[in-house]
Amino acid sequence: MSEETSHQDAYGAFVSRVALGPQDGPTVAIKDCLDIEGMVTRCGSQALADAAPASAHADVVMNLLSAGCRIVGKTKMHELAYGVTGLNRFEGTPVNPAFPDRIPGGSSSGSAVAVAAGLVDFAIGTDTGGSIRQPAICCGVIGFKPTFGRVSRKGALPAQSSLDCIGPFARTLSMIERAMGAIDPSFQAETFNGPLHIGRLLLDDTVEPRMAEAMLAVEAGEDGVIEEIDLPLLAEAFKAGMTIIARETLAANAALLERPELLGEDVRKRLEAARSVTDADMAAAEDIRARFTADVDALLGRFDLLMTPALPLPPPLLSEAGEPAKVLTLTHYLRPFNLSGHPALVLPAATSDGLPSGIQLVAVKGADARLIAMARRLAETNPLFQMEE
Fold first, then answer.
1. Residues 116-167: tens digit of each pLDDT
2. Domain ranges of the chain
3. How many Å apart are CA 352 and CA 311, to the nearest integer?
4. Is residue 131 flagged as an active site residue?
5. Per-residue pLDDT tens for 250-259?
Protein backbone atom coordinates (compact mmCIF):
# COMPACT_ATOMS: atom_id res chain seq x y z
CA MET A 1 0.00 0.00 0.00
CA SER A 2 1.41 3.37 -1.02
CA GLU A 3 1.72 6.26 1.38
CA GLU A 4 -0.86 8.18 -0.64
CA THR A 5 -3.41 5.37 -0.47
CA SER A 6 -2.84 4.94 3.27
CA HIS A 7 -3.37 8.67 3.85
CA GLN A 8 -6.57 8.73 1.84
CA ASP A 9 -7.94 5.64 3.55
CA ALA A 10 -7.55 7.41 6.90
CA TYR A 11 -10.67 9.45 6.10
CA GLY A 12 -12.66 6.59 4.60
CA ALA A 13 -13.75 8.77 1.68
CA PHE A 14 -13.18 6.23 -1.08
CA VAL A 15 -14.97 2.96 -1.74
CA SER A 16 -12.57 2.14 -4.59
CA ARG A 17 -9.54 3.64 -6.31
CA VAL A 18 -9.12 4.16 -10.05
CA ALA A 19 -6.64 5.88 -12.33
CA LEU A 20 -8.34 7.39 -15.36
CA GLY A 21 -7.08 10.36 -17.35
CA PRO A 22 -3.75 12.17 -17.65
CA GLN A 23 -1.23 12.27 -14.82
CA ASP A 24 -1.13 16.06 -14.83
CA GLY A 25 -4.87 16.76 -14.86
CA PRO A 26 -6.85 18.07 -11.89
CA THR A 27 -7.69 15.18 -9.60
CA VAL A 28 -11.34 14.27 -9.20
CA ALA A 29 -13.39 11.88 -7.06
CA ILE A 30 -16.73 10.52 -8.29
CA LYS A 31 -19.74 9.60 -6.18
CA ASP A 32 -20.53 5.91 -6.49
CA CYS A 33 -23.95 6.43 -8.04
CA LEU A 34 -22.28 7.43 -11.33
CA ASP A 35 -21.13 4.79 -13.79
CA ILE A 36 -17.49 4.13 -14.56
CA GLU A 37 -17.09 1.50 -17.26
CA GLY A 38 -16.10 -1.87 -15.88
CA MET A 39 -16.96 -1.01 -12.27
CA VAL A 40 -20.05 -1.92 -10.25
CA THR A 41 -22.12 1.14 -9.34
CA ARG A 42 -22.99 0.13 -5.79
CA CYS A 43 -24.70 3.29 -4.56
CA GLY A 44 -23.42 2.47 -1.09
CA SER A 45 -25.66 -0.58 -0.85
CA GLN A 46 -24.94 -4.24 -0.18
CA ALA A 47 -28.05 -4.93 -2.27
CA LEU A 48 -26.19 -3.72 -5.38
CA ALA A 49 -22.76 -5.12 -4.56
CA ASP A 50 -23.18 -8.03 -6.99
CA ALA A 51 -24.73 -6.00 -9.81
CA ALA A 52 -23.21 -6.18 -13.28
CA PRO A 53 -20.36 -3.74 -13.94
CA ALA A 54 -21.27 -0.62 -15.89
CA SER A 55 -20.96 -1.12 -19.65
CA ALA A 56 -20.06 2.51 -20.32
CA HIS A 57 -18.99 5.69 -18.57
CA ALA A 58 -21.68 8.09 -17.40
CA ASP A 59 -21.80 11.24 -19.53
CA VAL A 60 -20.32 13.28 -16.70
CA VAL A 61 -17.35 10.88 -16.46
CA MET A 62 -16.80 11.09 -20.22
CA ASN A 63 -16.90 14.89 -20.01
CA LEU A 64 -14.36 14.94 -17.18
CA LEU A 65 -11.96 12.74 -19.12
CA SER A 66 -12.44 14.81 -22.29
CA ALA A 67 -11.59 17.91 -20.25
CA GLY A 68 -8.27 16.39 -19.18
CA CYS A 69 -9.21 15.54 -15.60
CA ARG A 70 -7.73 12.61 -13.68
CA ILE A 71 -10.34 10.49 -11.89
CA VAL A 72 -8.73 8.86 -8.86
CA GLY A 73 -11.57 7.14 -7.05
CA LYS A 74 -15.24 6.51 -6.36
CA THR A 75 -16.51 7.89 -3.09
CA LYS A 76 -18.73 6.49 -0.38
CA MET A 77 -22.28 7.75 -0.01
CA HIS A 78 -25.41 7.38 2.05
CA GLU A 79 -27.04 4.18 0.85
CA LEU A 80 -29.07 4.65 -2.36
CA ALA A 81 -28.54 8.42 -1.95
CA TYR A 82 -31.48 8.31 0.46
CA GLY A 83 -30.34 10.00 3.65
CA VAL A 84 -28.70 13.12 5.03
CA THR A 85 -26.29 11.79 7.65
CA GLY A 86 -23.77 9.97 5.45
CA LEU A 87 -23.72 7.05 7.87
CA ASN A 88 -23.32 3.72 6.07
CA ARG A 89 -23.25 0.43 7.95
CA PHE A 90 -22.17 -1.56 4.84
CA GLU A 91 -19.22 0.47 3.55
CA GLY A 92 -18.41 2.53 6.61
CA THR A 93 -18.90 6.24 7.24
CA PRO A 94 -16.38 8.78 5.93
CA VAL A 95 -14.72 10.91 8.60
CA ASN A 96 -15.55 14.62 8.61
CA PRO A 97 -11.96 16.01 8.55
CA ALA A 98 -12.46 19.14 10.66
CA PHE A 99 -15.23 17.74 12.87
CA PRO A 100 -14.60 13.98 13.23
CA ASP A 101 -17.24 13.64 15.95
CA ARG A 102 -19.95 15.04 13.65
CA ILE A 103 -21.71 13.64 10.59
CA PRO A 104 -20.09 14.23 7.21
CA GLY A 105 -23.52 14.85 5.74
CA GLY A 106 -25.36 13.01 3.02
CA SER A 107 -25.82 11.67 0.61
CA SER A 108 -22.56 12.73 -1.12
CA SER A 109 -20.56 12.20 2.06
CA GLY A 110 -17.36 10.77 0.60
CA SER A 111 -17.10 13.45 -2.08
CA ALA A 112 -17.38 16.21 0.52
CA VAL A 113 -14.81 14.52 2.76
CA ALA A 114 -12.35 13.96 -0.10
CA VAL A 115 -12.40 17.68 -0.91
CA ALA A 116 -12.30 18.86 2.70
CA ALA A 117 -9.33 16.60 3.42
CA GLY A 118 -7.44 17.91 0.39
CA LEU A 119 -7.35 14.49 -1.24
CA VAL A 120 -8.58 15.78 -4.63
CA ASP A 121 -8.87 19.10 -6.44
CA PHE A 122 -12.63 18.69 -6.72
CA ALA A 123 -15.27 16.00 -6.41
CA ILE A 124 -18.57 15.20 -8.04
CA GLY A 125 -21.76 14.49 -6.13
CA THR A 126 -25.48 14.41 -6.75
CA ASP A 127 -28.13 16.57 -5.13
CA THR A 128 -31.78 15.44 -4.96
CA GLY A 129 -32.71 17.18 -1.72
CA GLY A 130 -29.55 18.97 -0.60
CA SER A 131 -27.14 16.07 -1.05
CA ILE A 132 -24.27 18.24 -2.32
CA ARG A 133 -24.95 21.42 -0.37
CA GLN A 134 -25.60 19.85 3.05
CA PRO A 135 -22.42 17.72 3.25
CA ALA A 136 -20.46 20.66 1.83
CA ILE A 137 -21.45 22.76 4.83
CA CYS A 138 -20.94 19.89 7.27
CA CYS A 139 -17.36 19.51 6.00
CA GLY A 140 -16.60 23.21 5.39
CA VAL A 141 -16.31 23.33 1.59
CA ILE A 142 -18.20 24.89 -1.30
CA GLY A 143 -21.02 22.91 -2.88
CA PHE A 144 -22.90 23.78 -6.06
CA LYS A 145 -26.22 22.43 -7.37
CA PRO A 146 -26.62 23.47 -11.02
CA THR A 147 -29.88 24.34 -12.69
CA PHE A 148 -31.99 21.19 -13.01
CA GLY A 149 -31.29 19.47 -16.32
CA ARG A 150 -28.12 21.44 -17.09
CA VAL A 151 -25.68 18.56 -16.48
CA SER A 152 -26.45 15.24 -18.18
CA ARG A 153 -27.59 12.50 -15.82
CA LYS A 154 -27.07 9.67 -18.33
CA GLY A 155 -25.29 6.92 -16.43
CA ALA A 156 -26.50 8.12 -13.02
CA LEU A 157 -28.62 6.19 -10.54
CA PRO A 158 -31.51 6.53 -10.17
CA ALA A 159 -31.98 6.79 -13.93
CA GLN A 160 -35.13 8.90 -13.61
CA SER A 161 -35.57 11.88 -11.28
CA SER A 162 -37.40 15.18 -11.42
CA LEU A 163 -35.22 16.57 -8.59
CA ASP A 164 -31.66 15.28 -8.94
CA CYS A 165 -28.71 17.31 -10.22
CA ILE A 166 -25.03 16.38 -10.68
CA GLY A 167 -22.63 19.02 -9.39
CA PRO A 168 -19.22 19.75 -7.82
CA PHE A 169 -17.55 20.27 -4.46
CA ALA A 170 -14.36 22.33 -4.21
CA ARG A 171 -12.37 24.45 -1.79
CA THR A 172 -12.40 27.54 -4.03
CA LEU A 173 -14.88 29.15 -6.38
CA SER A 174 -12.27 29.07 -9.15
CA MET A 175 -12.18 25.28 -8.86
CA ILE A 176 -15.99 25.14 -8.83
CA GLU A 177 -15.89 27.00 -12.16
CA ARG A 178 -13.25 24.63 -13.51
CA ALA A 179 -15.32 21.65 -12.41
CA MET A 180 -18.45 23.03 -14.04
CA GLY A 181 -16.55 23.63 -17.28
CA ALA A 182 -15.45 20.01 -17.19
CA ILE A 183 -18.83 18.38 -16.50
CA ASP A 184 -20.80 20.78 -18.71
CA PRO A 185 -18.97 21.78 -21.93
CA SER A 186 -21.44 24.64 -22.45
CA PHE A 187 -20.41 26.34 -19.20
CA GLN A 188 -18.47 29.60 -19.53
CA ALA A 189 -17.21 31.39 -16.43
CA GLU A 190 -18.37 34.98 -15.99
CA THR A 191 -17.41 38.03 -13.97
CA PHE A 192 -19.73 40.28 -12.01
CA ASN A 193 -18.71 43.81 -11.11
CA GLY A 194 -22.01 45.58 -10.59
CA PRO A 195 -23.82 46.28 -7.32
CA LEU A 196 -25.62 43.31 -5.81
CA HIS A 197 -29.32 43.41 -5.04
CA ILE A 198 -29.92 40.57 -2.57
CA GLY A 199 -33.16 39.23 -1.15
CA ARG A 200 -32.46 37.89 2.34
CA LEU A 201 -34.97 35.39 3.65
CA LEU A 202 -36.94 36.27 6.74
CA LEU A 203 -36.28 33.55 9.28
CA ASP A 204 -38.77 31.20 10.87
CA ASP A 205 -38.50 29.27 14.11
CA THR A 206 -36.80 26.28 12.48
CA VAL A 207 -33.36 27.94 12.51
CA GLU A 208 -31.10 28.19 15.54
CA PRO A 209 -29.92 31.81 15.95
CA ARG A 210 -26.23 30.89 15.64
CA MET A 211 -26.90 29.19 12.30
CA ALA A 212 -28.28 32.49 10.98
CA GLU A 213 -25.26 34.52 12.09
CA ALA A 214 -23.44 34.26 8.77
CA MET A 215 -26.44 35.28 6.69
CA LEU A 216 -27.23 38.23 8.93
CA ALA A 217 -23.59 39.39 8.85
CA VAL A 218 -23.31 39.45 5.06
CA GLU A 219 -22.86 42.90 3.51
CA ALA A 220 -23.78 43.50 -0.13
CA GLY A 221 -20.69 45.56 -0.91
CA GLU A 222 -20.35 48.91 -2.66
CA ASP A 223 -23.73 50.26 -3.80
CA GLY A 224 -25.31 46.91 -3.03
CA VAL A 225 -28.64 46.47 -1.26
CA ILE A 226 -30.04 43.71 0.95
CA GLU A 227 -33.81 43.56 1.45
CA GLU A 228 -35.85 41.13 3.51
CA ILE A 229 -38.02 38.70 1.57
CA ASP A 230 -40.51 36.00 2.41
CA LEU A 231 -41.14 32.62 0.81
CA PRO A 232 -44.44 31.65 2.42
CA LEU A 233 -44.48 28.24 0.72
CA LEU A 234 -40.97 27.23 1.83
CA ALA A 235 -42.10 24.71 4.46
CA GLU A 236 -44.68 23.25 2.09
CA ALA A 237 -42.05 23.04 -0.65
CA PHE A 238 -39.81 21.09 1.73
CA LYS A 239 -42.63 18.62 2.40
CA ALA A 240 -43.47 18.38 -1.31
CA GLY A 241 -39.85 17.58 -2.06
CA MET A 242 -39.95 14.82 0.54
CA THR A 243 -43.10 13.39 -1.06
CA ILE A 244 -41.67 13.37 -4.57
CA ILE A 245 -38.29 11.92 -3.58
CA ALA A 246 -40.10 9.15 -1.69
CA ARG A 247 -42.19 8.12 -4.70
CA GLU A 248 -39.29 8.39 -7.15
CA THR A 249 -36.77 6.58 -4.92
CA LEU A 250 -39.23 3.75 -4.32
CA ALA A 251 -39.88 3.46 -8.07
CA ALA A 252 -36.15 3.10 -8.68
CA ASN A 253 -35.48 0.63 -5.85
CA ALA A 254 -38.69 -1.30 -5.14
CA ALA A 255 -37.12 -4.58 -6.26
CA LEU A 256 -34.48 -4.27 -3.54
CA LEU A 257 -37.19 -4.66 -0.89
CA GLU A 258 -37.47 -8.31 -1.95
CA ARG A 259 -34.22 -8.85 0.03
CA PRO A 260 -34.68 -6.38 2.88
CA GLU A 261 -31.83 -7.90 4.91
CA LEU A 262 -29.37 -6.39 2.39
CA LEU A 263 -30.59 -2.84 3.08
CA GLY A 264 -29.61 -0.56 5.93
CA GLU A 265 -32.42 -0.21 8.44
CA ASP A 266 -32.89 3.54 7.86
CA VAL A 267 -33.17 3.17 4.08
CA ARG A 268 -35.38 0.10 4.29
CA LYS A 269 -37.81 1.90 6.57
CA ARG A 270 -37.92 4.96 4.29
CA LEU A 271 -38.57 2.80 1.22
CA GLU A 272 -41.33 0.91 2.99
CA ALA A 273 -42.89 4.17 4.19
CA ALA A 274 -42.80 5.49 0.62
CA ARG A 275 -45.38 2.90 -0.34
CA SER A 276 -47.95 5.04 1.45
CA VAL A 277 -47.47 7.99 -0.92
CA THR A 278 -50.64 8.27 -2.99
CA ASP A 279 -51.33 9.75 -6.39
CA ALA A 280 -53.26 12.49 -4.59
CA ASP A 281 -50.19 13.24 -2.47
CA MET A 282 -48.13 13.54 -5.64
CA ALA A 283 -50.66 15.82 -7.29
CA ALA A 284 -50.64 18.09 -4.24
CA ALA A 285 -46.82 18.10 -4.25
CA GLU A 286 -46.74 19.04 -7.93
CA ASP A 287 -49.15 21.88 -7.23
CA ILE A 288 -46.79 23.18 -4.55
CA ARG A 289 -43.89 22.78 -6.99
CA ALA A 290 -45.61 25.01 -9.54
CA ARG A 291 -46.62 27.65 -7.01
CA PHE A 292 -43.29 27.73 -5.15
CA THR A 293 -41.35 27.92 -8.42
CA ALA A 294 -43.47 30.85 -9.51
CA ASP A 295 -42.78 32.62 -6.21
CA VAL A 296 -39.03 32.12 -6.57
CA ASP A 297 -39.09 33.26 -10.19
CA ALA A 298 -40.98 36.40 -9.21
CA LEU A 299 -38.44 37.28 -6.51
CA LEU A 300 -35.56 36.68 -8.91
CA GLY A 301 -37.17 39.18 -11.24
CA ARG A 302 -36.44 41.77 -8.52
CA PHE A 303 -33.17 40.48 -7.02
CA ASP A 304 -29.84 39.23 -8.34
CA LEU A 305 -29.64 36.65 -5.57
CA LEU A 306 -31.79 35.10 -2.89
CA MET A 307 -29.93 34.31 0.33
CA THR A 308 -30.86 31.82 3.05
CA PRO A 309 -29.03 30.08 5.87
CA ALA A 310 -27.43 26.84 4.66
CA LEU A 311 -28.55 24.70 7.61
CA PRO A 312 -31.10 25.37 10.36
CA LEU A 313 -29.14 23.34 12.94
CA PRO A 314 -25.47 22.48 13.46
CA PRO A 315 -24.42 19.15 11.93
CA PRO A 316 -25.36 16.53 14.55
CA LEU A 317 -22.82 14.52 16.47
CA LEU A 318 -22.40 10.98 15.16
CA SER A 319 -23.97 9.81 18.41
CA GLU A 320 -27.08 11.89 17.63
CA ALA A 321 -27.48 10.83 13.99
CA GLY A 322 -30.23 8.34 14.80
CA GLU A 323 -32.41 10.97 16.48
CA PRO A 324 -35.06 12.18 13.99
CA ALA A 325 -35.31 15.62 15.63
CA LYS A 326 -31.60 16.15 14.93
CA VAL A 327 -31.68 15.28 11.23
CA LEU A 328 -35.14 15.65 9.69
CA THR A 329 -34.97 19.42 9.16
CA LEU A 330 -31.30 19.68 8.10
CA THR A 331 -32.32 20.31 4.47
CA HIS A 332 -35.12 22.75 5.34
CA TYR A 333 -33.57 25.56 3.26
CA LEU A 334 -31.95 23.36 0.60
CA ARG A 335 -34.56 20.85 -0.57
CA PRO A 336 -37.11 23.44 -1.79
CA PHE A 337 -34.73 24.51 -4.57
CA ASN A 338 -34.51 20.96 -5.86
CA LEU A 339 -38.27 21.19 -6.18
CA SER A 340 -38.04 24.47 -8.10
CA GLY A 341 -34.94 23.57 -10.11
CA HIS A 342 -33.00 26.81 -9.51
CA PRO A 343 -29.20 26.80 -9.26
CA ALA A 344 -27.98 27.06 -5.67
CA LEU A 345 -24.54 27.39 -4.08
CA VAL A 346 -23.41 27.20 -0.47
CA LEU A 347 -20.48 29.09 1.04
CA PRO A 348 -19.13 27.69 4.32
CA ALA A 349 -18.64 29.80 7.43
CA ALA A 350 -18.44 29.13 11.16
CA THR A 351 -20.76 29.95 14.02
CA SER A 352 -19.56 32.14 16.88
CA ASP A 353 -18.71 28.95 18.77
CA GLY A 354 -16.84 27.40 15.85
CA LEU A 355 -19.36 24.98 14.40
CA PRO A 356 -19.97 24.44 10.66
CA SER A 357 -22.42 26.89 9.13
CA GLY A 358 -22.78 29.05 6.05
CA ILE A 359 -25.16 30.59 3.55
CA GLN A 360 -27.05 29.48 0.47
CA LEU A 361 -27.31 31.65 -2.64
CA VAL A 362 -29.97 31.07 -5.31
CA ALA A 363 -30.19 32.62 -8.79
CA VAL A 364 -32.27 32.57 -11.97
CA LYS A 365 -32.45 29.26 -13.80
CA GLY A 366 -29.64 28.98 -16.32
CA ALA A 367 -27.57 31.70 -14.64
CA ASP A 368 -25.16 29.19 -13.10
CA ALA A 369 -21.98 31.02 -14.12
CA ARG A 370 -23.37 34.34 -12.99
CA LEU A 371 -24.34 32.85 -9.62
CA ILE A 372 -20.76 31.68 -9.04
CA ALA A 373 -19.43 35.10 -10.08
CA MET A 374 -21.79 36.84 -7.66
CA ALA A 375 -20.79 34.43 -4.90
CA ARG A 376 -17.16 35.37 -5.52
CA ARG A 377 -18.01 39.06 -5.18
CA LEU A 378 -19.67 38.37 -1.82
CA ALA A 379 -16.81 36.17 -0.64
CA GLU A 380 -14.25 38.86 -1.52
CA THR A 381 -16.08 41.55 0.45
CA ASN A 382 -17.13 39.44 3.45
CA PRO A 383 -14.12 38.03 5.34
CA LEU A 384 -16.33 35.67 7.35
CA PHE A 385 -16.13 33.26 4.40
CA GLN A 386 -12.30 33.22 4.35
CA MET A 387 -12.22 32.05 0.73
CA GLU A 388 -8.84 31.36 -0.87
CA GLU A 389 -8.56 31.55 -4.64
1. 999 999 999 999 999 999 999 999 999 999 999 999 999 999 999 999 999 9
2. 3-193+206-217+306-385
3. 15
4. yes
5. 999 999 999 9
Checking if the pLDDT of 9 tops 70, the result is no
Q: What per-residue confidence (pLDDT) applies to 98?
A: 94
Q: What is the pTM of this model?
A: 0.96
Catalytic residue among 45, 111, 131, 161: 131
- In whole angstroms, give the CA distance from residue 316 to residue 321: 6
Count Cβ atoms below 10 Å from residue 38 Cβ, excluding itself.
Answer: 11
Residue 31 is among the residues annotated as catalytic for this protein: yes
* Residue tagged active-site, from 45, 76, 107, 161: 107
Catalytic residue among 31, 76, 145, 365: 31
Classify domain 3-193+206-217+306-385 at the CATH topology level.
Amidase signature (AS) enzymes (3.90.1300)
- What is the band of 386 on the pLDDT scale with cuts at 50, 70, 90? confident
- Please, which residues have CB within 8 angstroms of residue 293's CB and are 6 or more apart in sequence? 339, 340, 341
Is 357 noted as a catalytic residue in this protein? no
Closest CA to 141 of 92, 96, 180, 91: 96
pLDDT for residue 4 is more than 50 = no
- Return d(Cα 258, Cα 25) in angstroms, integer: 43
- pLDDT at position 6: 35
